[in-house]
Amino acid sequence: MARVPVFYSFHFDNDVMRVQQIRQMGMIDGDEPVSKNDWETVKRSGSSAIERWIDANMKYKRCVVVLIGTETHARPWVQHEIRKAWTENRGLLGIHIHSLRCPNQGICAKGINPFDQFEFRDGGTIVRPPVYDPPSHDAYNHIKNNLAAWVNDAIARRT
User: Fold this and answer.
1) Distance (Å, rounded) from C-alpha 43 to C-alpha 75?
2) 8-55 pLDDT per residue, tens
3) CA–CA separation, 85 vs 95, rounded Å?
4) Strands across the sheet with 131-132, in order?
5) Domain ranges of the chain
6) Which CATH architecture has domain 5-158?
7) Can you give the pTM of this predicted structure?
């Protein structure tokens, strides 16, 4: 099966090490990781530069995967990416990543579902993007074994 290009949305400072684990699974085509130095350069350039960076990196992606850590729901750029994904009719899903072990921080507290801040409508019907919460005892393998199917399902829901 061909790998689907996706955009990962997450809180960089808290979750980048957990996100790297998911990217390295190789199950789907994710955007190339941005280094901390590159992200800091983009952030210092102001909000219009961040928005251009998001636009450029999301451009050909079919799905946005929100990787939900402890503070992800409160991040303004994650909220922007969620709105943009929905408006542009991209697949959209969330995965709780609190049970993935970060080499620096271990596991973290489960984050609030960032989709709860939005009202998603498909025509006149209110819908909810799927959010997955892998079991804590085997979160890595659960994500690895299901990620491609979750992405394909999210895309199918939007087409």
Assistant:
1) 13
2) 999 988 898 899 889 888 766 554 555 555 667 777 788 888 999 999
3) 16
4) 29-30, 5-9, 63-68, 91-96, 131-132
5) 5-158
6) 3-Layer(aba) Sandwich (3.40)
7) 0.91
